[in-house]
Amino acid sequence: MMHNVLLILKRCGTRCASALALSCAILATPGASSAQSADQCQVTRTSGRVLVERGDDRDRLTAGEMVLSGDRIITRRRAQVTIRCTGEVAIVVGAQTRIGLDRLLRPEGDATSTSGIDVFRGIVGFLRPGGRRDGFVVRTPSAVAAVRSTEWTIEVDDNATAVFVRDGVVLVGFAEDTVRLTPGDGIDVAADGSGGPVKQWGQGRIDGQSERLGPDW
Question: Each residue of 59-80: pLDDT tens digit?
């Protein structure tokens, strides 16, 4: 399970109980609770207008700044930002994206809870080095993704979710079905939770995502 991801591509309810169980199984395998938490995350690159909402304040976010749990990060048109956390984990955020960092940093000394982020709209790429065994959970309006070591993207548009895997394996659960994605595979799921077919994405779509995410992807 070293490179597995489970993605639950639907609004959660009784129909996604089996997919949630699979997610818990991935995160509960040996090594997930013993890993050290990512104790700090820093902005390493920005381009364009990137904002951070912290409490009632909204300010420009620049390279070199630390991000905090509870921050909301917003990228404007043509903007990008890269956040690198302890353990060489990178979060690459494309243009016109909004993410929440409420769960990004676990409390000091807490090796049992799972870190993650919320993606409200836009596109985000995740780079997690091989060998990592701690969990990382990404939530969207229509999806929950439980991640270990892999390279993948998640995109949210009007509550619909798309996932693409560049490296690793992804198990996608929606309704009562689970499908397996391998490198080059992608899937689109509508806002109502109905999933399309798993297919190899064309180079044009892959290149389009890479352009939106920038040089760190």
Answer: 999 999 999 999 999 999 999 9
Are the CB atoms for 152 and 91 separated by under 8 Å? no
SS3 category, 164: strand
Angle made by CA atoms 212, 7, 113, in degrees to the nearest 5: 100
Is residue 145 within 8 A of residue 9, CB to CB? The reply is no
Distances in whole angstroms, Cα of residue 199 to Cα of each of 27, 144, 180, 188: 26, 20, 11, 10
Question: What is the chain's Cα-based Rg?
Answer: 16
pTM of the prediction? Answer: 0.83
Give the burial string for 151-180 (b: 16+ CB within 10 Å, else e).
bbbbbbeebbbbbbbbebbbbbbbeeeebe
